[in-house]
Amino acid sequence: MSYIAKPKIMYPGRKKNNLGLTSSDYEGAVSTLCAGCGHDSVTAAIIQAVFELNIEPHMLAKMSGIGCSSKTPTYFVSQSHGFNSVHGRMPSVTTGANVANGDLMYIGVSGDGDSLSIGIGQFAHAIRRNVNMCYVIENNGVYGLTKGQFSASADIGSKPKKGEPNNQEPIDPVSTALSLGATYIARSFSGDKEQLVPLLKGALMHRGFALVDIISPCVTFNDHEGSTKSYAHTRQFYHQVIDVDYIPPAKEIKAAYAEGEAMPIEMHDGSTIVLRKVDKDYDLTSRASVFQYLREHSNAGEIMTGLLYLDESQAEMHELMENINTPLSKLPLENLNPGSNELKKLQNRYR
Amino acid sequence: MKPTDTSNPEYFHKVVDCQWGCPAHTDVPAYIRMIAQGQFSEAYMENRKSNVFPGILGRVCDRPCEPACRRGRVEDEPVAICRLKRVAADHRDDITEFLPKAPKISNGKRVALIGAGCASLTVANDLAPLGYEVTIFEALPITGGLMRTNIPQFRLPPKVLDEEIGYILDMDVDLKLNHPIDSLKGLLEDNFDAVFVGTGAPRGKNLEIPGRYDSDRIHIGIDWLESVAFEHIKEVGKNVLIIGVGNTAMDCCRTSLRIGAESVKVMARKPRGFFKASEWELEDAEEENVEILTNHSPKEFVIKDGKLVGMKFELMEYKVDESGGIDRGTVSGEKIIPCDDVVLAIGQDNAFPWIERDIGINFNDWDCPLVDETTMMSGRDGVFFGGDAAFGPKNIIWAVEHGHQAAISIHRYCQGESISKRLPDGLNLVSQKMGMHEWSFSNDYDDASRRLMPHVDLLDRFKKVDIEVELGFTAEQAVQEVERCLNCDIQTVFTANLCIECDACIDVCPVNCLTITMNGEQDDLRTRLSAPANNHEQDLYVSDDLPHTGRVMIKDEDLCVHCSLCAERCPTGAWDMQKSAILIPYAKDQLSDEEPLSAIESNS
């Protein structure tokens, strides 16, 4: 952390987005995380992504549970909506919020403890319902807030700062999400914003559940030799499979891509993500082959990153449930509350 | 790019824009921090070390530091450095005991200084404490040179001059007033060990157009100002035209208003933006309702019945090209403007009728002597020049710097050492970390705007010619203004092998001046930083290869506000905030052991 707040300085030539805002208008309170925490870099990447996407702050809702990761929504877009829920319950609160108002853009920030231990049931069901949200896991393999015990994502053989190495099988959020039917699955690293920012943009604009699992080293409790989630280890075993370029709607694709290496995919809002294949044989539309590919490489100790799976064809929660599109807050009271007679009629239909 | 060599004092010196921009390299951030802490005497002495005349310069310096100030790039207005200097002078205690003193026994070397202006006085200041027998020859009955004769008293009170010049004369300097030197050859026969010429550029430029010699109401600016200073001229007509729009013109128009003029017009040949006067001097004149007429080129003086009644001008039109250049202009008409007096303030020339041309000193086409820019020595060994006398009209702070350099040369010359082998600058870096998030300086960015200098009311200031217009900052204003300083001397120092590339510093930087990327050529690198580095006058600070990825850390020095957040957020201490002190050698530092200055010497 630092003691003074980051000053807002309007230096000449500072970049503004289409709304006339600068990136500092998307910042939040001063971070109280440890200096060098990966989560602060993820925060910076989220700020950059929403700034570049020209998102109106009041159209964003940031949701979280408990943990170091779940503190981070305080540190970005102060002027948006937010809900800091009970430990592991961010997915259900987001589901409820999304039912009430599907117009907002939802970003849930969670951690490996919040999502893979206490909240794994919630995590699974948000995926199953294909809630339209960007779900960020800041994954560091330890419970930082309670001083560094191993979490459910710790790898076998990973050494703690003190005590015995981990010998339990880790839960991998990417393969879990893959098996549960998530429609946008990415993995990245807090130390690689060039990759992370476009992945976050794609996730925010994806219609349906978008998971971004981000290796985000705990600089205090899990950044030593023998750790498998340290800055050094991640950089050593880090492989890019498919990177993306995010291109907003009505903007021409100008960059030159070699044939067979790039593939544009149009998204529901008219924007495009161009997939840049680092591994040409990788097929990110086949759940089975992705599963096998990831398994093989993770057995070899490699950390595969990029946009790993994408399916733009699935219906999201509102479509599945045939909900009304209007946010409940905008419905007139007589529609929202048709009265006890209408309730009785409804109940009679099921008698 | 190659890793930046921070052991070369020049690199960190350039980061301190104000100090780098100052010809005498005054350590501005250091002394203005002292002001905020109420250490006025210490701040005064820190100034005096390099610029010798803090009270004078705090009022009338040309302040090259302010256009250089980083604050002016980060937002609009630079820190009011010059007027903070005056605060140090105004509020100091008696500092006489801290002044250098002449030793009881001389070193037997005699040095003659010609002219008692800022350049000569600086040489005396540096040499007298070393035991030199210093004699100053001055043609006028008073000291100070143009500081006294050409700068009006309402900007620079005589008391301030007397005090600061007195500090120097009190070091057993032999002052000979009313003693013009009319032959350098003659003076050289007196067997001085060295001679320094600091006689300024005493000849105001003339305007040879019809009618010039048909009236006694046409004056040469600097001569006229001198006559006002000596009270030989006590009044002027109601309508006055000032020709030229430099700083002397500003002094002439404001002086006119104090000795009887009711309407003063400054006649400029070119449009605004091409004036020679400093922006702040223009502002002060316009505050006093001086009218500045642009695009008027003087054609002739209009004389009726032997009396000056007006002046004829050609009305000019100019084309300004894209790069801001201006053409010679075309004439679009003529106009006569009535007046009672005209003051010519169109520049100054050097004049050395008293220097024989056969004694080894060579002159160029503009009658400027050929002088070595480092040693200040002329073609004749042992004869040195400085101030306006050396390279034509500059300003006081340049004259002071010339004086320092000439003093170094004279000292080395008189001791039989090479004058070209001078001590290089030294550098001292000290970490300013006091605790977890504690720094020894006020690191939080203050977005306050520049304080305005309070002035004497317009109605009151014209009553006499010597009412000082600027009142000086109050203590509160001074403290607020100091907080605007970005502490550019507290350097961001990076140690590559400690970096774990967590990006924390990059994320927290409020001006996006940090980047980790693959190394490359400078022009290429400048385009692919967090924010493009378009100011090529400011360096890129390039680290050694980083241990994890082999990339490099790059800092664009342009807009850094020295807030320390990079160092606070760094988990490994790869970034640190270290105060740089540029150790600048003076005459007293030469010839002891010929080693570059180290930290210990700088404290003494």
Form type of chain A:
globular
Order of helices and strands of chain A: HEHEHEHHEEEHEHEHEEEHEHHH
CATH architecture of chain A: 3-Layer(aba) Sandwich
Q: CATH class of chain A, anyone?
A: Alpha Beta
- The count of β-strands of chain B is 23
Number of helices of chain A: 12
Structural class call of chain B reads: alpha/beta
Distance between the termini of chain A: 60 Å
Number of domains of chain A: 1
| Termini Cα gap of chain B | 39 Å
CATH topology of the largest domain in chain B: FAD/NAD(P)-binding domain
**Assembly of the depicted chains:** heterodimer
How many individual β-strands of chain A?
A: 12
Number of helices of chain B: 23
Q: CATH superfamily membership of the largest domain in chain B, which one?
A: FAD/NAD(P)-binding domain
Task: Give an account of the 3D structure.
The complex is a heterodimer of chains A (351) and B (604). Chain A contains twelve helices and twelve strands. With 351 residues, chain A is of the alpha/beta class. A ten-stranded mixed beta sheet of chain A has the order 2-1-3-4-8-7-12-9-11-10, sandwiched between helices. In chain A, helix 1 (38-52) packs across helix 7 and helix 3 runs parallel beside helix 5 (120-129). The mean pLDDT of chain A is 92. Chain B has 23 helices and 23 strands. The two termini of chain B are 39 Å apart. Chain B is an alpha/beta fold. Chain B has four domains: 9-97 and 452-483, Alpha-helical ferredoxin (Fumarate Reductase Iron-sulfur Protein, Chain B, domain 2), CATH 1.10.1060; 99-202 and 350-414, FAD/NAD(P)-binding domain (3-Layer(bba) Sandwich); 204-348, FAD/NAD(P)-binding domain (3-Layer(bba) Sandwich), CATH 3.50.50; 490-583, 2-Layer Sandwich (Alpha-Beta Plaits), CATH 3.30.70.20. In chain B, 29% of the residues lie in helices and 18% in strands. The interface between A and B is medium-sized, with 33 and 33 residues.
